[in-house]
Write a structure and sequence with these properties.
The structure is a homodimer.
Chain A: H1 11-19, H2 34-44, E1 56-61, H3 64-71, H4 76-84, E2 87-94, H5 101-104, H6 111-114, H7 118-142, E3 146-150, H8 155-162, E4 168-177, H9 193-196, E5 197-199
Antiparallel strand pairs in A: 1-2, 2-4, 3-4
Helix pairs in contact in A: 1-7, 2-7, 3-4
Chain lengths: ~200, ~200
């Protein structure tokens, strides 16, 4: 049963971000500039995280050597995609993000102490990193590009290879570019509203 | 340094979802209908989750009794906000979401087995639930409403009170409505692009 309510967000924007956007599995050769990534970030940075903690850190894999270090730690089916994408971004959660809170959350000086425990802090870093991964995917789409987020990789190996300090945890690798030929699988089913929402 | 790149998403949509939207702390009395929530879901359901798992479940707190059961388990400063909001949504991750995968991911029948371990499954449920929380917040904004997401509550008590089966984990409580008077705190700082992005 469709809803009769019309959203404030216009139809073309709905299509661009949600309805027609798809996870891409192939891309054209057209490069994606750092300036485009900056424009994306300057938009999505405003979306909320708890305690305004913003734990997301992004490595843009530009050098051939970095690309090879990443590809060999991707799972089998993801290797070719990661090798071929015009731009690959490695998204990680900064496990020491609390150190920045005095600047990011000046009106709540006690927040740092609430994150003193490293297990609680890691949980918060990954949770908010996952929230920011969503903003990142929608930001890529807002730039007219397609995102191919992947979680199939050797997490420990990538953490060590790219963040030797142990203070970061990779949460996703995202291929970015203009969609190529046969970029999409058929769309998989979504849950119905009544399977997800319950009035209590 | 601002970017020279113009995004495909139009300026009004950028403002609605990111730039002018803010986490609201007070709301008008105007109600938010189930039909509006349905319209929001029919848009955001298309955004991606890993394995297309869609673990998010939402309780719309409509009855006075449900509201009271929730309010008393919110942390101090969140109680009044949760009491007053026109609509309160309790967002949870379904820890048994893998049971739906044969329907949601028909082309990858092995995915269910990869989630057989309950600890791995909980991690995946919460991670993807956090991703869907972001889509939900942006969906509320797409409807011209403001969201007030909160994580300050007694998690164990809410899990027991609303999901006695132990198969769900609350991840956020979100107040929803038209922003009221003095709805916003001043915007807290965001990290600069060069603090978040590194080219390697």
């Amino acid at each position: 049963m469709p809803s009769d309510v019309t959203l404030a967000l216009g139809g073309p924007a709905q299509d661009l971000l949600f309805r027609e956007a798809r996870t891409a599995n192939s891309f054209t050769d057209e490069p994606v500039s750092d300036d485009t990534m900056r424009a994306i970030y300057e938009l999505i940075k405003y979306a909320p995280t708890s305690f305004n903690g913003q734990p997301l850190r992004v490595l843009l894999i530009r050098s051939h050597e970095s690309r090879m270090r990443l590809v060999r730690n991707m799972s089998g089916p993801n290797q070719a995609k990661t090798h071929a994408a015009p731009l690959v971004a490695l998204l990680a959660a900064d496990l020491e993000f609390h150190e920045t809170l005095p600047r990011l959350l000046p009106h709540l000086p006690g927040a740092v102490d609430m994150l003193a425990d490293s297990a609680i802090r890691e949980e918060a870093a990954v949770f908010n990193g996952a929230m920011q991964l969503s903003y990142f995917i929608l930001g890529v789409r807002a730039a007219g590009l397609a995102a191919g987020p992947m979680i199939g990789f050797d997490e420990d190996a990538i953490n060590k290879e790219f963040f030797g300090d142990g203070g970061h945890k990779v949460i996703a690798v995202v291929n970015i570019g203009k969609p190529g030929e046969n970029a999409w699988h058929p769309r998989s089913p979504r849950l119905a509203y009544d399977e997800v929402f319950t009035v209590v």
